[in-house]
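Q: What residues go here?
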């Protein structure tokens, strides 16, 4: 699988998990502070879309977990 697809899957999964634990209406609610992770992931996606630099993508390629 390509690195950008893995990044998208990872980011989407992280967003859904943090919403599950951070949204007060969720049955698995833990704390609203977890929503800051969602903000960070969204900001990172925005930044990588503008600058075309993504640290997770670089790490995946360096470790050989995927190809470009």
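A:
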């Amino acid at each position: 699988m390509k690195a950008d697809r893995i990044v998208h899957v990872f980011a989407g999964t992280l967003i859904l998990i943090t919403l599950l634990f951070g949204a007060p209406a969720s049955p698995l609610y833990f704390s609203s502070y977890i929503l800051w992770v969602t903000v960070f992931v969204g900001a990172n996606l925005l930044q990588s879309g503008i600058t075309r630099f993504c640290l997770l993508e670089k790490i995946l390629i360096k470790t050989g977990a995927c190809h470009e």
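A: Context that may help when evaluating the design: DSSP finds three helices and no strands in the chain. Residues 3-22 form the longest helix (20 residues).
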